[in-house]
Amino acid sequence: MVSKKNVDRVSLKQQTSRAVSSVDQIREFFSENTELFSDPDQIMPAILDGQLCLDMIATVAVAQQPQIKRVLDLGCGGGNASNLLLQKLQSKAPNLRNQLPDVNLTLVDLSREMLQTAEKSLAKRTSGIIKTHAQDIRKLSLKENHYDVILCSLVLHHLRHEREWLDTYKQLHTALRPGASLFVFDLVDITSSSIHQDAYTRYGQYLSKTVDDEYRDFVFDHIKQEDTPRSLLWQIDQLRAIGFSEVDILHKHLCYAAFNAIK
């Protein structure tokens, strides 16, 4: 579970931030709290169905792409999403039970500290090449028709303007080979004010029960300060318009959702 000690540590480091976080402030925040955000046992209980969604993504990814060779993990953090994917891949392939899968990973994150943690962890899960890029996803240049799977876990909500969202999704579509899979797990906006209010009331109750009221307030302040999510249905519409052939929702719980698109 999320420990009170770690919650206090994160809250203290967040108090000096401005009203709206810049890219540099986001980088600094996650770099300073790499240990916490790299540990699924610490962070996932605070995210509605977080572990379930990552497990679903890994399971479906292996089912859709049984011969995974190239994975892009965008906003990889501590590498939790890729770690679970590689575990699933190894467990589903009998010939890999006693050896590591040969999967090349491209890891992208703002924080070099996060990347170092992810690379160290994932090197134990794959015999393939791991490349890291400490970069803003809006400035990223990707190879065309290259990846079998792209993972975006709790990262796209940092995009600000509609053009940034559209450009990012278009680039991800271009980077996938035909038939390849995009997976997104993220905080999503809720356009109806009444549904939004109810969802965040319930989420707040969940956070208070999971940790305490102080942590609930920290999470809500953090979302207000740092995150600009788009609605799930808006994102689904954009993915279809860009040219993804199949788009499906894996799971949605209040303000969090996991979804999949196939090129």
UniProtKB/TrEMBL annotation:
Say if the entry is tagged with keyword Repeat.
Answer: no
Report the residue ranges that make up the Methyltransferase type domain in this protein: 72-181
Which top-rank group of organisms is this from?
A: Bacteria
- Cited InterPro entries: Methyltransf_12, SAM-dependent_MTases_sf
Q: Which GO terms describe its molecular function?
A: methyltransferase activity
SUPFAM superfamilies annotated for this entry?
Answer: S-adenosyl-L-methionine-dependent methyltransferases
Q: Which organism is it from?
A: Poriferisphaera corsica
Which keywords describe this protein according to UniProt?
Methyltransferase, S-adenosyl-L-methionine, Transferase, Ubiquinone
Which example biological process does GO assign this protein?
methylation
Kindly provide the name given to this protein in its UniProt entry: Ubiquinone/menaquinone biosynthesis methyltransferase
